[in-house]
Amino acid sequence: MKIENLDSEKKFARSDRVAELLKRAISEIIQNKLKDSRVGFTTVSAVKVSNDLRIANVYVSVFGKNYEKKQTLEALEDSKQFIRTLIGKNVILKYLPDLHFFIDDSLDYSEKMTNIISGIKQQSSENLKKKIGLELTDDDIQKLKNINNRLMNAERILLTTHLRADGDAFGSLMSIYNYLDGLNKKVKVVIDHGCPQYLAWLPDSGLIEDNKNLLIDKNFDLYVCIDSDFEKRVGYPYEIFKDKVNDNNLIVIDHHPETIANTNLKILKTEAAAAAEIIYYFFKVNDIPLNDKIALYLYVGLLTDTWMFSQENTTSTTLYIASELLKFETVQPYQLTMRLFENKTLGQTKLLGKLIETIEVDEKYKIGIGHISLEMFKETNTTEEDTEGFVNIIRALKGVNIAVLLKQQKDGKFKVNLRSKDKFNLLPFVKKMGGGGHIKAAGFTSELPLIETKKIILEELRKML
Ligand SMILES: [Mn+2]
């Protein structure tokens, strides 16, 4: 028995050694000698040689889709003789074994490859938390129920949001409008600066009012402000109603961290990618069925505030809600993306060209900065509305971690938009400058001339970096 054992150990040792030699030789050949376009990103993960050394099973890992794996396997089978001949030239073996190729599908390997390719290291628990998204606490659920009770018991309701509504502001507001309209409430939707042109094709956009004079002397049972702080960002609706709102008639539903509105009816979820996420849960918590229109509005909110689900605010919650909304016929991802993002005018593109000309990069501090003057707007027959997404062009530059876009307003002041690409938190900076926003997307207004504004921005940012 002892002798037999020794003998088989010896045999294993020999076949292992051969296997190791073959593994190295075949890897080398696949990488450097084999010129078959069907062979994908392949590595030899293991070679097993039979005890008589006549047969070698070669396990290869192929990164890619199943058909790519299949093609690679076919190519390797076809090249078997070529590979054998090369092995024969480079490795001295008693027998040149027959080669049989197999795909190695071990999970461990594909995981490793994914990590190598995307350069993703171990996720920190904080990142993981961010990815998981919105979690409703018992308190949130109670608040959402209270808000619904108040809405159901009110007769006259004012809906508003931040001035120059964006897709999320519009979508969140109009989904609530639709619900209230179904309850036969008297609802007024007021937005300072009205509905932006790029959203005007959406149903109900004609219901949005933008007339200060029609509001004066009006009274509402409830004032609802969505996707915005009431005091700082809504414009004239705040000026008109600031003395009429109180802890019990002002509802604020928002996801902006700097929102300070103090009311018993506030729900602020800063981890929500869009106010539309909170509105979605408002409907769910209160068992309010969605319809085609509401689903469309909410999807527009998610799609725009996440910039086509590509920004860091996109979480599993966002994608979960999006997938639920896709069940409605009106939610057509391709069509909506085209409508909202690939619908630029020539003037807009020319304006972008002018902005690009102004971009400068501070390589040391990784700041990209550019501006649009009133003159550029005039030359291209465009307005501020046409600059949606322009700051992302600056952010997309290699070596830029903070993107700054200055846009001159009709009164000559500069509105400054900032985007952060890495971990840098923009909030302390914009707060210092009297503005607000999110950690990675924020802004403020400067009354200084262009050169001074740029100078002060760069000086302050460099201090903080
Ligand atoms: Mn929003």
Structure description:
The chain is α/β, with parallel strands linked by helices and 465 residues long. It has three domains: 117 residues, 2-Layer Sandwich (GMP Synthetase, Chain A, domain 3), CATH 3.30.300; 210 residues, inorganic pyrophosphatase (n-terminal core), CATH 3.90.1640.10; 119 residues, Diaminopimelate Epimerase, Chain A, domain 1 (Roll), CATH 3.10.310.30. The chain contains 18 helices and 15 strands. The strands form three sheets. The chain has a six-stranded parallel sheet with strand order 6-5-4-7-8-9. Strands 10-11-12-13-15-14 form a six-stranded mixed sheet. A three-stranded mixed sheet has the order 1-2-3. The radius of gyration is 31 Å and the shape is elongated. The protein starts with a helix and ends with a helix. Bound molecules: manganese (II) ion. The site of manganese (II) ion (MN) has 6 residues, from loops.
Q: Find the CATH superfamily of the largest domain.
A: inorganic pyrophosphatase (n-terminal core)
Tell me the helix content.
Answer: 40-55%
Which ligands does the model contain, each kind named once? Answer: manganese (II) ion
Shape assignment: elongated
Q: Biggest β-sheet: count, sense, barrel?
A: 6 strands, parallel
Give the CATH level 1 class of the largest domain: Alpha Beta
List low-pLDDT spans: 1-9
What is CATH's topology name of the largest domain?
inorganic pyrophosphatase (n-terminal core)
- How many helical stretches? 18
Q: Order of strands in the sheet with the most strands?
A: 6-5-4-7-8-9
Supply the number of structural domains.
3
CATH architecture label of the largest domain: Alpha-Beta Complex
Radius of gyration of CA atoms, rounded to a whole number: 31 Å
| Alpha-beta content class | alpha/beta
Distance between the termini: 72 Å
Provide the residue-averaged pLDDT.
90
DSSP E strands, number: 15
Q: What proportion of the residues form beta strands (DSSP E)?
A: 15-25%
